Amino acid sequence: MGFRRKTNWTDYRAVKKVEMDGRTFGSKAESQVYLMLKAQEQAGEIKDIRCQVHIDLLPRLGQKRMVYIADFVVWDLRMKCDVAVECKGFETEKYLQKKKVYRFTGPMPLRIYKTSWGKIGLEEEIYPDRQKLLDWLGADLTNQPELIPSGS
User: How far is CA 73 from the centre of its chain?
Assistant: First the structure.
């Protein structure tokens, strides 16, 4: 009779954390996206890179909250607005659900970079259509808070 350790799927998908510029990233791919954003900042395309920003997707729609944590949020100088940036290697079911909700309730555009065979490329850009949601709900969400402070 031996002791057998329980395993779960995270044991097989172990990702090493990476430290760079005094920040810790969840994966090598996320650190590569950070380097790409730093290069864009040096080129004058973006500014104000913020990491792990909490975004409330379902404000004031009952007691349930759905919070999306973007890997990065940057100020895009060309578009003159904040843009959320996400880096994905593996898409979980929970992520896919939040991405669907983000299409309607997201407060800013979302750029999704995907890793494949060690290369990172822009997979998709989402521009939320909040007017469709407002029409469907018959509600006024124009005064909603956009970002949640990371301490909450």
Answer: 8
Report the amino acid identity of residue 81: C
Calculate mean pLDDT across residues 91-99: 89
Task: Kindly report, residue by residue over 29-43, the tens digit of the pLDDT.
Answer: 899 999 999 999 999
The tokens describing 139, both together, are 């509600």
Question: Residue 138 corresponds to which tokens in the numbers above?
Answer: 């018959």
Q: Which class would CATH give 18-138?
A: alpha beta
Question: How far is 89 from 27, CA to CA, in rounded Å?
Answer: 9
Q: How far apart are CA 54 and CA 57, in angstroms?
A: 10
Domain boundaries, the chain: 18-138
Q: For residue range 8-60, list pLDDT tens digits in order.
A: 444 445 568 888 888 888 888 899 999 999 999 999 999 999 999 998 887 66
Amino acid at 46: I
DSSP string, the chain: --------HHHHS----EEETTEEESSHHHHHHHHHHHHHHHTTSEEEEEEEEEEESSTTSSS---EEEEEEEEEETTTTEEEEEEEESS--HHHHHHHHHHHHH-SS-EEEEEEETTEEEEEEEE---HHHHHHHHT---TT---EE-TT-
